[in-house]
Specification:
heterodimer; A: alpha/beta; eight-stranded mixed β-sheet; globular; B: alpha/beta; two-stranded antiparallel ribbon; 13 helices; 11 strands
Chain lengths: 262, 414
Amino acid sequence: MSARAYLLDVAGGRRKIRLFEAGEGRPLVFLHSAGGLTEDSPFLAALARRWHVFAPLLPGYGDSEGAESLRDMLDVTLHSFDVLDALGLDRPMLVGHSMGGMIAAEMAAIAPREVDSLALVAPAGLWLDDHPIPDLFSKLPHELPALLFHDPEFGERVMTAGGDLDDPKFLEAFIIRNTRQLAMASKLLFPIPDRGLAERLYRIRAKTVLIWGESDRVISPVYGDAFCRGIVGAEFVRIPAAGHMVIVEQPDAVVTVLSRLD
Amino acid sequence: MRFIWFNLMPWPDLPEDFREKYRSVWVDIPSALYDPVRGHEVYNTYLDQLEFAETVGYDGLGVNEHHANAYGLMPSPCLMAAALARRTSRAALVVLGSSIALYNPPIRVAEEFAMLDVISGGRLVAGFPVGTSMDTNYAYGRVPALLREQYAEAHELIRRAWAADEPFVFNGRYTKLRYANCWPKPVQKPHPPIFVPGGGSVETYDFCIENNYNYSYLSFFGFLRARRLMENYWQRVAELGADDSPYRATFAQIICVAETDAEAERLYGPHVSYFFNRCLHIFPGFVDAPGYRTIKTIQAEFLNQMARPNIGQAASLSWQELNERGYIVAGSPETVLQRMEELIKTLRVGNIICGIHVGDMPPEKTRHSSELFARKVMPHLKGIWKDYDDDARFWIHPLPQRAVPGPVAVEAAR
């Protein structure tokens, strides 16, 4: 099982995106979070042991281009359908994490006939005044591990792997990558990650499973209940010893839950 | 050479342990620290100072725009300029708001600026800042990655609204007006001089040069650090084939004048310290929302080793260090004159925004410093750019005959 990474023309050449593809079997499309995705992600590998995985990088992430033409939720939702079209996929299993979950939920709500199998992993997209989601855009790097991970020390090791921020070259690359990514994400998530999804959840017809890390300190698991109230028949599974980055902390447990959609 | 007297209008009562107790002077500072009764006195004192500045000879009076900020208490700079328009008669009203992308619809800015220009008889300098990330993204909730596109569209709308003699249709991405129709229109034609505050964005250089707008570099980090940035600006002016009139550029500088160097430190030291320690205590997470700066600007900053100064670093500097590094220009009139001459020539700027009120400086000291600068320093600097005196593009053109406020007392009935 080897991953392929390639560039894909989307929307008749209007945008060009990076795609990771691996595994075989039923097609599964994975939409990443605001933090992005790398080719060597253990979660992708775990998915690929069971499914034929397609993981597109949103414009602004990696070397995916065309972010300037994506300004709002509708643009990104339609872009994601353009990606499915470019891949020639018909109703793949759709899995999204955090911001990717928000996009997947929008796709399922906007075109319910085109999404029949949906997994939302700690998705963004709703807002509950009593459970405010922290402002990740203003957080300093050292504040993030404790927010994102059940085990902050593990999180810190994951987040600082691969480079030294004291090296000016690495720092420049890091800042530019981070800025491109989060600038794109800000169009969906800033200043409040709510673009009206709550009003549209009722349209979702897909078999839906919601997956949450039990100690998610970014989007509290109470949001899982809110999604369940909005999506008829949705199933909600909490995973212990995992925070918002549940796909990094407990990839196999997430895959086990996803297999319920098979 | 022109001098603009400017006051950020800081809140003067931030507690001594402010840095320890609060993480930021901006964005999430609790408004419980604001006392409106004291604020009544503070606003009126600050307006008095601006009016006083006109009487001692400053060419312009400057106000600006900040939001959720305890060191900049002018969410609406146009309100301040409106107050000044009636009690002043000669000086330019330099409004370094409005952050044109923040108004919905932005024709509001065209209208308010036109009102100010008409009331003041053509004394308005119209500032078109993008606004800081703290103001626009964090306090006003604008999506950072879309802000510059919104700014460009707002700019187009305002310029067209001032130029048009008939209603027009404006079909923008962010603003749609079936009847774009600006009443009143500005006195100054084709429009009031436009100043664009910038902080080193390469796009802003080009925007100013191409439109003949004044590039105003507003920094609290002094002229030594500004050298490289302004060198890049003037290099860009040359590259685009524009003339090098110093009136294309403005620089803001904190200035403290006393009879002697030692007296300056004694009089103003505590207030400068208040400014750098309490007013500039800004949570770094609010400084630059992702997408606020373009990738091109970030790359240029790395290329030029222009990494942003840590805003907090000045807090630990002594009076002498602040002075040596140019964060402040302070001392006797002779000292200040020598330093200002160096500043003006090296940065090649035609306008100085004089930050003479600093931090929690009380009114008597502010007047003292303002007056010494006006009487003993300014006259010697006035002629630095005399070869460019006929460059009228970047300054106000007031009406020759201007109304004066009428009497308010009603004569007793006979």
